[in-house]
Amino acid sequence: MGDTTRSLRWRTIDIVVAAVLGVAIGVVFWAWSLLWGVFGTAFDFFKPAGGLGVGIWMLGAVLGGLIVRKPGAALFVEVIAALVEALIGNQWGLTSVLEGFVEALGAELIFAVFAYRVFKLPVAMLAGAAAAVFATVWEWFTYYPSWAWGWKFAYTGFGAVSGAVLAGLLGWALVRAMAGTGVLDRFGAGRERARTV
Amino acid sequence: MTTLAVRGFSWRHAGRSAWAVRDVDLHVEPGERVLLLGASGAGKSTLLAGIAGLLPTDTGESAGEILLDGRPPGGTHRPGILFQDPETQLVMARSGDDVAFGLECRGVPPAAIWPRVDETLRTVGFGYPRDRATDALSGGEKQRLALAGVLAPDPELLLLDEPTANLDPAGAELVRAAIAGALADRRRSMILVEHRVAEALPLVDRVVVLAAGGGIAVDGPPAKVFAEHGETLAAQGVWVPGSGPAGTHPSRTAGPTLLRAERLGYTHRDRSTPALSDVDLSVPAGQVLAVLGHNGSGKSTLALLLGGLLAPGTGRVVAEPALTDRSTASRPIAGTDRAAASARGGRSAARPPHRWRAAALAGRIGSVFQNPEHQFVAARVRDELALGPRRLHRPAAEIAATVDELLDRLRLSRLADANPYSLSGGEQRRLSVATALSAAPRLLVLDEPTFGQDLRTWRETVALLGELADDGRGLAVVTHDTDLVDALADRTVTLAGGRLTAPAEVA
Amino acid sequence: MRIAPAAAPPDAPVSRLNPLAKLGAALAVSLAVLASIDPVTPTVALVGVLVALPFGGLRYRRLLRRGWPVLVGAVLVGCANMLFAADQGGTSYLHLGPLQLSSVSLAGGGALGLRVLAIALPGVVAFATIDPTDLADCLVQQLRVPARFAIGALAAYRLLPLLADEWELLGLARRARGIDAGANPLARFRLFAATLFALLVGAVRRGGRLATAMDARGFDAGTPRTFARRHPFTGADRLVLALGVLLAAVALAVSIGTGTFVPLVG
Ligand SMILES: Nc1ncnc2c1ncn2[C@@H]1O[C@H](COP(=O)(O)OP(=O)(O)OP(=O)(O)O)[C@@H](O)[C@H]1O
Ligand SMILES: Nc1ncnc2c1ncn2[C@@H]1O[C@H](COP(=O)(O)OP(=O)(O)OP(=O)(O)O)[C@@H](O)[C@H]1O
Ligand SMILES: [Mg+2]
Ligand SMILES: [Mg+2]
Q1: From B15, B112, B372, C20, which residue has the greatest number of CB atoms within 10 Å?
Q2: What ipTM describes this predicted complex?
Q3: How far is A88 from chain B (nearest CA, A)?
Q4: What is the pLDDT of residues A18-49, one digit of tens each?
Q5: Is A142 within 8 Å of A34 (Cβ atoms)?
């Protein structure tokens, strides 16, 4: 088999599958935005802990990076997802697209540090956490400028844990499960799987 | 003017030990029209994909070469190809945009695009405006649109993979006429894959048959090929003209009624007109009811309603005691699935099928969807077949026996461990029929059970369905296949615009 | 193509505008409001946006039907800012563990809720009137986004309504095969998760085939694409963009002029 994973050029299948992932994740974002809009109220007793819910929004970046394994994949999937969320109609409009861009930079940074060669669980969790740090810092400015620094850092801390688990761990597990079904055979993530009938 | 040269081409899909295509040599000169034949699973679709340059090196292993005018296919240096399943080839959200897509990729000037789009849509008989949403089309309408998309850039070599499999006879005739028109000036060459030889013959002047073990079995003008090799070919599953299925007329007497539809109607989400209205019919035990009708006439919708899968919009579906009574169940249910047991008999049996628990439903009514892939839920062919009986808590030995028998009868044993999604079109169809049979329900609702079959697998499928009816089961079969109706149906009904055109008649 | 209803009929003036003009105008307003944390800037911006909407053919009622979550979001953000504000000066109303509420934080939180509303609303309105096909076309034609990515994403977006159908079909298929969850909530959740996973896998599989279909039509060719659908940036588009920038400037000017302006940083 050719070592196409290392090529930096995006094949059509990379683009389309990444975009399809983005669309699917965008629907998840949309549902999560509305759900969190309601259930997040519970966290008004201690809003900074609401950072525990942000991880799901990092899922696109982590999945994109882990599956497509090319520079810009995390960014592409996450931005498409945010766009789809806004097109379907969420409460944040353009702001969430900008936030999607910012948080994907966090994940992209981690994948780049590992030179787009390592896609094991710790890297996935780091990417999820980094994305969440970027996202929560962005929210200091957009949503919670009045907070004391302690609360801001607490929010980011909770966010990082959430990103590591809900995006990193969950994303990694999802990719493994998907590889098992054979749909990722044309991607690096599914390459290791070999079964002949 | 495109010349195709295939030299010693072989292809093995990643994850398979058998070659899908082996040692094929084929030359097609400009203007030639080739009918490519071969048993289901012989590698026809794979070969066409290879010629279209659509077998990426990371999806399998290849040998030999394929050259179009001396160059391997790729980019816009490609023949036009129409796949077996229209669902997988529409790209854009609006019909007109989809036809324009191929022209845009080739850099056709914008001013020339729309006239060309309109012209092509007219050629294929597409009856909607350009901005019609592509996902609001029936299977047959989608196929016609996809053909338009392929024809629009005016390719010099046309590859058609069972282009009329999903069309009603009138629609198929329209598409064949469109194809004939596109070939009229002899400038364009074509390779057509089609199991139903008789209908395809007027379009071709050469027949090539892929041999089962590799290579080409026969190659030549149709008359000569069928005169000299007719019998061997028929034995291999080729629908040789004249050797087709004899129109046997079954004489089965109707048993008790299993299921009745009363003034049944249904309107799909976001639709203004109902897909089905005021349908009255009944399905008796021991007989085969064929449901005919044009594309988009509501057959599949009716099938889903009869199968207890959709809730009727108006009217109702009534399950008769012959279907629900424990005593008349075709096989006793082993184990103690309380849900299934409690849904049987008593008050719950009076409930309409769409309210039954799933296990009870699968044990009584088996459904085969129009698109086989829509009904796969497991990762291996074998697990797919074992699923139904397992949900009904049948004994393990019985399950294994059922699975093996079905695999054998439908020629899938070789593929028992393969992923259902990696099967060929015909193999997928047989698997989806087998999954509905494996739970041994009293009533079967089958949507196009024979499309994409070669003569041999067609006969085997028809024989299997006939046995089920003889065994006292009721069958409702949605189909465009007139041979199937002749060979199997006891009664036929025809839908037009969602209504029955005439009361059920005896075939 | 949509799950939520579009906020304007397709022939309304706002629906005919270039998507980038709408997004650009919305971005200008959002950024101006983002740069400040006083109550005046968002108020001016909101008034400006709400006054402008009917001229675009938008009805408040229809907009509310699609855009109500934006109100919920703003209220929640406002509350969070009240309860955890650093500055809890003035009269104290509440002190319960970390939760505090005072006259200053109440007013500050209210202002920040308003601010979030003013940041989000222009974008929500813009997206509510944008057709995805137009957006992809314009991204390529005006912003020079690589066509392969924009068109690839658009083709993927076509799968969205199909995903809704697929979700239904997956449920039907499982039911036909004897799989359902009954009343047990745990079984229900597992079935839900399994169906969701199947949907994701199915979407990726479709993506792979879609890529093949696109290549079959010449998508991977190096030849430059042409565009059947032209989306010029018209005078009306320039006007809308200019009005957006103007509104942003006016909002900031009023706030600075009245001496209420508080910058976000510094
Ligand atoms: N993507 C795939 N991965 C693995 N095996 C495949 C794949 N596609 C096809 N095959 C296998 O390759 C063989 C040839 O398949 P192909 O689709 O070319 O057959 P076909 O002649 O077109 O059959 P049919 O008439 O049923 O459509 C079959 O055994 C099939 O199971
Ligand atoms: N999921 C759906 N959503 C909206 N409309 C639909 C849906 N499925 C079918 N329709 C519409 O309902 C009508 C009947 O469709 P149906 O699939 O039952 O036709 P059919 O007779 O099976 O056609 P074919 O022979 O092409 O399979 C068509 O006009 C079709 O466009
Ligand atoms: Mg085939
Ligand atoms: Mg149908």
Answers
A1: B372
A2: 0.88
A3: 16
A4: 999 999 999 888 888 877 766 666 666 676 77
A5: no
